[in-house]
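To: structure desk
From: M.T.
Subject: fold request, one chain
Message: Could you run this one when you get a chance? Sequence is below, nothing fancy, just the single chain.
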Amino acid sequence: MVSTEQTISVTINGTTYERDVEARKLLIHFIRDDLDLTGSHVGCDTGNCGACSVIVDGQLVKSCMMLAVQADGSNVETVEGLADGEQLSKLQQSFRDHHALQCGYCTPGMLMSATALLRSNPHPSEDEIKKGLQGNICRCTGYWNIFEAVKAASE
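Reply: Done. Structure tokens follow.
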């Protein structure tokens, strides 16, 4: 029988992990199931909702659309890596201050999308913020508080 596993080495939030993974395992399932980093959420498995968004080698990625083996050798950032211990990042604090969540399911993906946006454009216009968040679906908030939180964090 041919093995369908491959050994990968991935640095996630500054920690390097080496694991054998099935060739067909999605990055989101590797992150959540193999590494027990459950901040990123599985919302749709089709790349539509953005709840699984992470940053891979500086690029925003929907981790339900990427195989874990494709991340071999990469640097991955998840929502768990945004805070410095108990100290929230400026963006996380802004989400808290602006009540930019309700159920919280979309929040990790929104935070990662906004992080990627603010890194590439520290002072985005209102239209650029809307475009930067458009790959994420929130069913609870109506987006206004999320938009305001990103806007405030960019000022």
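Reply (cont.): The helical segments are 27-34, 90-97, 107-120, 126-133, 144-153. Let me know if you need anything else for the meeting.
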